[in-house]
Design goal:
105 residues; flat; single chain
Length: 105
């Protein structure tokens, strides 16, 4: 499904004959999804960090695109806080994996 979406976006860009900022940011999200799927097929595990990374990129894309039109200050602060909370969650998860290892079996 992700590959189909990438193909559709590429066809849309070719037909428009321009690449816009939101297209590039959307490709970053697609890249993260493909990385996550590839890692799952390679190791059989799905680290929780990758969906968090995808969420952070998606919120950043939303802020970047919608701030060009109309976004009030409180919405911007709320979305930025959401990215900060997700980044802190990634740090806590990484700290736990490094300093509090667990059995794989």
């Amino acid at each position: 499904a992700t590959m189909v979406a990438i193909g559709q976006e590429m066809v849309l860009m070719v037909n428009r004959r321009e690449v816009m900022l939101h297209d590039i940011l959307l490709f970053f999200i697609y890249l993260e999804i493909l990385t996550m799927v590839g890692l799952y097929f390679q190791s059989g595990k799905l680290p929780i960090r990758y969906p968090l990374y995808i969420a952070m990129v998606a919120i950043a894309r939303h802020i970047t695109i919608d701030s060009m039109t109309e976004m009030d200050g409180w919405t911007m602060i709320g979305l930025s806080t959401a990215i900060l909370v997700l980044a802190l969650a990634v740090l806590v998860i990484r700290y736990g994996h490094i300093h509090l290892p667990y059995d794989e079996g």
